[in-house]
């Protein structure tokens, strides 16, 4: 039992608590995540990582056989900020998404609406990689039934060409880490050298099969 007391003119107020230190209040965490985005710090941190990756790709592109990069999609290539903000970072897979900027916004409805936007630094990285004849592969945790809407959303956001879009088979629900690493291994077996693997989750990068991995900031959700 812990006692917190304050003294006012009239009385001494004590609030007794039965715990030592609870986790951070969820409302404060949500506010901090929104402030991280709205202050521009998120975009700066994101651009810093992309800049490092871009420099690395420039240095390595001419040194290896069949150079390639692997990119995740959500919060790596495409931003879902409107949906994330509306839902205050909760995950609602089903339901409509008809009341933005208010939530709730069903994630599948949001993705099917094709309103995700490309991160400008990542689009620039893709453009430069392609100028350097580096193959670009998207490896996403989205399932195969979202192939057309994902492809259309990429094109709508200005990304018109890629060498592979690899989505999860419909019956796959393993961790992202155990799904994505074998995909990269299969690209290597086809002769590609993955010079950079870029994602917003540690699970995008776990398991190797890339010369160098780059982790983008994402304090908004975690995918194992
Ligand atoms: Mg992602």
Automatic annotation (TrEMBL):
Name of one Pfam family that matches: Acid_phosphat_B
InterPro entries: Acid_phosphat_B-like, HAD-like_sf, HAD_sf
Coiled coil feature spans: none
Protein name: Acid phosphatase
Organism: Swingsia samuiensis
Keyword Signal found: yes
Keywords: Signal
Cited SUPFAM superfamilies: HAD-like
Gene3D superfamilies per the UniProt record, alphabetical: HAD superfamily/HAD-like
Signal peptide (from-to): 1-20
């Amino acid at each position: 039992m812990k006692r917190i007391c304050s003294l006012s003119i009239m009385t001494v107020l004590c609030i007794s608590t039965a715990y030592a230190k609870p986790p951070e209040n969820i409302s404060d965490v949500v506010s901090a995540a929104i402030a991280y985005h709205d202050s521009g710090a998120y975009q700066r941190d994101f651009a810093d990582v992309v800049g490092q990756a871009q420099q690395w790709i420039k240095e390595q592109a001419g040194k290896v056989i069949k150079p390639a990069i692997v990119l995740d999609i959500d919060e790596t290539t495409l931003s879902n900020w409107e949906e994330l903000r509306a839902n205050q970072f909760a995950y609602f897979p089903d339901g409509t998404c008809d009341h933005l900027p208010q939530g709730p916004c069903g994630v599948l409805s949001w993705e099917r609406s094709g309103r995700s936007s490309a991160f400008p630094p990542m689009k620039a990285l893709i453009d430069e990689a392609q100028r350097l004849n580096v193959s670009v592969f998207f490896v996403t945790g989205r399932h195969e039934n979202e192939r057309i809407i994902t492809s259309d959303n990429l094109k709508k956001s200005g990304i018109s060409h890629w060498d592979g879009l690899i989505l999860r088979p419909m019956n796959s629900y393993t961790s992202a880490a155990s799904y994505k690493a074998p995909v990269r291994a299969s690209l290597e077996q086809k002769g590609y050298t993955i010079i950079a693997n870029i994602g917003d989750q540690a699970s995008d990068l776990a398991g190797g099969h890339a010369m160098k991995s780059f982790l983008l900031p994402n304090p908004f959700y975690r995918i194992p």
